[in-house]
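Collaborator request, handled under Task 6.
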Amino acid sequence: MMKLTTAVIVGSVLAPLALLTAQSAAGAASATAGGAGLAATRVAVTRVAVTPPPARASLFDLVGVTTGTGQLLPHRIRRLDAFGQPTSTVLDITDLAVLRQNLSAVNPVLPVATWPVQAVLPNGAPGNQFLSIRFTLSLDPAATLQGAVSFLAYRSGTGVTTRVPARLFAGGETYFGSTLVRAVVRSGNGITVLDPRALGFPQGFAGAGALADPEVAVFVADSDNDLTTFETFPAGVDLRLVIEPGPYGQQGLLLDDRIVVASAVGSSAPPPELLGGAGAATTPPPGATMLPPGQRFTLHLSSAVQPYDLGYGSDGLVPAPSAVEFVATVGAARLPIPCFGEPDSWRDLCDWHVRPAHQLPGASTIDLSLVGAAAVGLNGQSATNGGARFSTGPGPGVVNAPVAPEAIYVGQSVGQPGIGVIDLDGFGQGTGDPAISNFPANPNVGAAGVFPALIPGATSLDAGGAGPLTLTRDSNLGTQLVDPSVVASVVDLQIGQSLDLIFNNTGINVQVSSANQVNPATMLLGPGNTIEVAPHPNPPRIVLPPPNPARLIVTEEPTVTTSVSVPGRVTTTAPPAIPSPLNLLVPGPNGLFAANHPGVFYGPQPAPPSPPPPPFYAPFTSRQQIGHFLFAADRIAGEIVVLNSNRMTVLARIPVPDPTDLAMAPSLDRLAVSSFATDTVFLIDADPSSSTFLQAVARSLVGHGPRGIAWQPEGEDLLVCNAREASLTILDGRTFTVRRTVRGAFGEPVDVAVGARQVTTGFRTGTWFAYVLSSDGTVTIVESGPAPWGADDAVQVTPAWFAGATSIQPAIDVASGCWIAHRDARGVAQLSLLELTRSPVGPQPVVFDPNNESRLPWSRGRVWAITRAIGGAAGAVRLSGRVPVDVAFDDLTNEGGALDVPSLVVPGLPSARHSGKGHLKMTASGVVPATLPRLAFVAFADTGKVDVIDLGTGALVRTLDVPGVTCLAHYWRQ
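Structure tokens returned to the collaborator:
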């Protein structure tokens, strides 16, 4: 379709009518010739040409709205140059992309035209004031004149709306009584009046003929039913044009968007306000109850407000400053919630959709406020304060949960889908029940010199958890931190990069710049909290007012690191940084599950007093925002839900058809998603520094029915189980193209675990091994290349049988193996470790056993066997169910700050600066496993239980009730 091109001479009072004149012929050409040759109708001008939306075959659209002397729609804005500075080029805002690309604090939307206070025509001669509306195609006069095209007078303060006394013409036709009459027609560039009752119709000036075009509707001021008495529109009120969607075009062509624009007579336009005055017009209406946590709101304003003032133009993750505020009342606390704002369309800057930056807490009062002093109308007048109160229905309250590496995430799909968190630390000051809080047992509570001082909480917002190996509670004391109002199912979970790469306290506290952030493993500067250490407390408490709500920071910074030279701790030699004492939460009676580096705090120094002295160098390791991007596959909803793992608030939703399984690249920059129904693997950008963050950036067609997927720990390959065709697709880790398809060695493959390449570790085979679990309980070993030392194929089906197993996880060690939760030969649940127990040392040439009917490459003396079995009929303990669905492990002791061991076979693979998900790390002590788990977690679908097992003793430590559990996640989950 051709676009109708308009052009206007800047500064000319006749510009809007020139616009209409130039477009009248274009509109007729569009109607008869599909828009061919429209560019030839442009007028030679000094202003840049702009492009209204195209006419489409099934509906028509708006071109523009004018007062005769000035433009109302499209709104206008100056083009920004490459340095973000406004230029002299003025653009029509014909879609929201134009607005977003050019809006800034120093480049607002330009004022709209107003009507003069006298009853004069555009040429200054006496005449009726009018409002002209042009569409892309011819109007149906009867439908237009009888439809919901309204010209309204709104009186601010009272909230009273009345119709503007005016006569509406459509294509020169109007109703006199009940009779539709063609009253005026175009005659060249002028008007011919056909009915004497239409005498006084605006005419006699340049471009007047356009007002009778078949694409144009015109409101003419008329309070006495006599157009010959020249009139103005009412003064002192907002004059609002409102056009509801409907069939206004010929042959029932539809206008599918709402159009709203407002102006006034004279230079003193009323201030913008929420329609209705004291009864503020919002959707949902004031007083609405039982709102869901993800509720979005619409504000209906009397006139347009500058988009920048309502938070428009943010990146969708970090809210921009806004004149709209939400406050949730939880108990006696009032918690501010930033929001995102977006206008209804380019045709309507009066109606604003505002979305709280995270879901609302359940069973809470919600106050929405428009802070008038922070919102300015297009013509410069400050808005009037307004607001409304609502309440939410039952649901999760405010969440402040412990974070990895001291957390296990639990997904639920059956019955009540949602997400919970298992607290491994147990000494944090998150949300919880004051009656059972374990936070007072933290030995640092009340200790001298600890900053911020640790004081036991008194409410569910800061009470803290119930202790190690308990489920975290929200402020409503529920353990389901994400509920069915947010997710329809959770079939898999993956932990991504640290939140503080985007959400942090920089700009509020000069000491938390990433230039001061230290990697605890390398002692080198680098941004982002590492997975190696957790904050103290984990998590810090919520404080009100929040330190930095615009960045979604509502909790204290972690306990400050020392600033005096103490062996084994991050130090600085630049006083006056605050010194900190030893961290008393160490392994032993008080800190049974304490994580890495006992005795050390990791938080940043507080901001200097105001006015601040020159910033001093005070390195830190952990800052706000604690936590990570948490990805949840919602198969029923067909999307990946991106959450803040600390607050459990939704940050984004990424549509993916039938998402079945997730895998995070070791480099943390890509999330792979298998889509069972579409035979596709989608790649999501998981790098917060990327311009395409949280977008699908690639997809690869694989075999039929892809399910389980796993990245090879050096990032060489991405392995995909194709359940419907009994094959394994191997995607190249650089190009994501199909490198290899392995067939003939599987039943119905459902999951896969893959280990690190054994170059200097294990039996130094020079290859990696993958373990493919089929639904019949068999496990097939796949060996990597390169030839001749690796088969790049399946090499063995292990003799062990793992009945009822649906999930498999690698054993992260210098050897090669995997953990499987299954049923033994007697049908009793068991957790088994399958390992490579015997192999010649070094690479072995690939040969084929002529007596092997399966034609698999000969295993060359390699033996895989079960080396650990916990539970089962012969075990000392019985696990709590018979249908295991997943297994996970703690990462309390890990070397995540160190660099991953790179591939020596595939050069140039991307790598993470720290916290990569490789299985082997390079440290001063040599190559070591990335994590040394102490606990295993096994989930059972039949009982809705999660068993916690001590891997050292095989003892069942605890059983947690998690109805509907479907999956578990720890940081190094494949």
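The cover message to the collaborator said: "The helical segments are 15-33, 96-102, 141-146. The radius of gyration is 34 Å. Please let us know whether this matches your experimental observations."
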